[in-house]
Write a structure and sequence with these properties.
The chain is mostly helical. Helices cover 73% and strands 0% of the residues. The chain has one domain. The protein has four helices and no strands. Helix 1 packs antiparallel against helix 2.
Length: 96
């Protein structure tokens, strides 16, 4: 059984990871939204997908922060798998 210190450290690491994922998803959405104002064509469906991914990431972070300290890591992993697959940054740059 892990000690309380190890559990607290693991929880802090998971919180940091979820915050980074939420920030990354939000930044991708913001960048694509800004791209939509430029001369290049963008996909409304892609914009909605990025917005949805951003909202999911924010919700995962909120759920984790509001969950009791004894939340099972398996439950967090199951929630993380609900998100949609994201495209790579190279694919984003190749979009018209």
């Amino acid at each position: 059984m892990k000690s309380e210190i190890e559990l607290a450290r693991a929880r802090e690491e998971r919180s940091t990871q979820l915050a980074a994922e939420a920030r990354y998803a939000r930044e991708r959405f913001d960048l694509y939204k800004a791209k939509a104002y430029g001369p290049n064509m963008t996909s409304p469906a892609r914009l909605r997908e990025l917005e949805h991914n951003s909202q999911l990431a924010e919700q995962r972070l909120r759920n984790f922060q509001e969950s009791p300290r004894t939340a099972a890591p398996q439950a967090e992993e199951a929630v993380a798998k609900q998100g949609l697959a994201e495209i790579s940054d190279e694919e984003l740059n190749e979009l018209p």
